[in-house]
Specification:
The chain is mostly helical and 342 residues long. 67% of the residues lie in helices and 2% in strands. It contains 15 helices and 2 strands. The chain has helices spanning 3-23, 52-62, 76-80, 87-114, 116-120, 129-132, 137-158, 160-178, 186-205, 212-237, 241-244, 253-277, 291-304, 314-320, 322-340, and strands at residues 25-28, 31-34. Strands 1-2 form a two-stranded antiparallel sheet. α4 packs parallel to α8 (160-178), α10 packs antiparallel against α12 and α13 (291-304) runs antiparallel to α15. The longest helix is centred in the N-terminal third of the chain and has 28 residues, at 87-114. The radius of gyration is 24 Å and the shape is globular. It starts with a helix and ends with a helix.
Length: 342
């Protein structure tokens, strides 16, 4: 190779590197911010020519079926009130579960529409159908309105109180998507409150009271999951966290770790109190036998969910980690045996 050709090759290489570096930056409010890899800022694919079945599949994935497991909290009412043998109560719980599936699906669609551009620059969320260009926003918006309207109508037809709880759940989540997700700490509390409302709806559906300590356990456990998710997101995005959501700049992994330790210890303490004073056991402390599973599960979750990106999908993490899944299964089985057979 002569000197002239070598100079041309070096120049071409520098030009390619310059273009690559340019592709990795985006303008934000007049300033240049570093974004993710080039794939994160690629234009979404066109949906022209996609079949109805392809779009329907993308729509279903956008409602996040993998997160429907959260709605299983509505079954706490029928289980802990010992009404699993009552067909009417079980049917009411199943219908309530379905209503929350519809409502949460509509909220996910609405949230993805609002976060469309931010999700396209996120290393994980850019794979969502809307951000990837697999689902037209107009179709997603129409589906969101239909799902939310159907859920609210069904809830009010079942019970006025159930309709009020679901309406509060929808209103809170819409406010979160529009504005409150940018408010530090309030964003975490609002998401955790959604778990609490699911448990309350399950109790209302079967017309039974639930111990306030069980509600507190639900709220604290949900708060733990959301804080882990925030920590994972901050660590995954690094310096770019604020460009995705501005309030993430005010979360630090060190402070989040301290909060997680406090919340985990408080959750275990609240559950111990619940097992001692649960109305389901009529004063018997037999549910204390389930405390080790709860304690181990929380500690294990804190350990495995701290890896970057792991805490983003807690519903998937439970099934991927055999120790975590085992603690959940053993806790569930022990609770059922103690409440219904002992």
């Amino acid at each position: 190779m002569n000197g002239e050709s070598f100079t041309k090759d070096v120049g071409s290489s520098e030009q390619r590197n310059t273009r690559s570096r340019s592709a990795n930056t985006v303008a934000t409010d007049g300033a240049t911010e570093v974004s993710g890899p080039p794939a994160a800022v690629h234009a979404p694919r066109s949906t022209a020519g996609d079949s109805v079945f392809f779009i329907a599949g993308a729509l279903l994935r956008s409602t996040r079926p993998q997160q429907w497991i959260k709605n299983a909290l509505v079954f706490a009412g029928v289980i802990f009130s010992q009404q699993l043998t009552d067909a009417t109560a079980v049917r009411s719980s199943v219908l309530t579960f379905g209503l929350f599936v519809l409502a949460s699906g509509g909220i996910y669609l609405f949230n993805d529409i609002l976060d469309l551009e931010a999700d396209r620059a996120h290393p994980l969320k850019r794979q969502r159908p809307l951000a990837a260009g697999e689902l037209p926003p107009r179709v997603a918006l129409t589906a969101a309105v239909v799902l939310l309207g159907s859920a609210l109508a069904g809830a009010f037809l079942m019970q006025l109180a159930l309709g009020a709880i679901l309406a509060l759940y929808v209103a809170m989540n819409l406010a979160y998507s529009l504005w409150l997700k940018h408010v530090v700490l309030l964003d975490v509390l609002l998401v955790a409150s959604g778990f609490l409302l699911r448990a309350a709806a399950g109790a209302v559906a079967v017309l039974t009271p639930i111990s306030p300590w069980l509600y507190l356990c639900t709220l604290l456990a949900a708060l733990l999951i959301i804080l882990v998710k925030r920590r994972s997101e901050v660590e995954l995005l690094g310096p770019q966290a604020a460009t995705h959501r501005r309030n993430l700049a005010r979360y630090a992994t060190a402070s989040l770790d301290r909060w997680l330790q406090v919340v985990a210890a408080t959750t275990i303490a609240a559950y111990v109190v619940y097992t001692l004073f649960s109305p389901a056991t009529l004063g018997s402390p037999k549910l204390l036998a389930t405390v080790p599973f709860v304690a181990f599960g929380l500690v294990r979750y804190l350990r495995v969910a701290r890896a970057p990106g792991k805490g983003e999908t807690p519903e998937a993490l439970i099934f991927r980690d055999p120790w975590l899944l085992g603690s959940v299964v053993l806790w569930s089985a022990t609770v059922l045996v103690l409440l219904y057979f002992v």
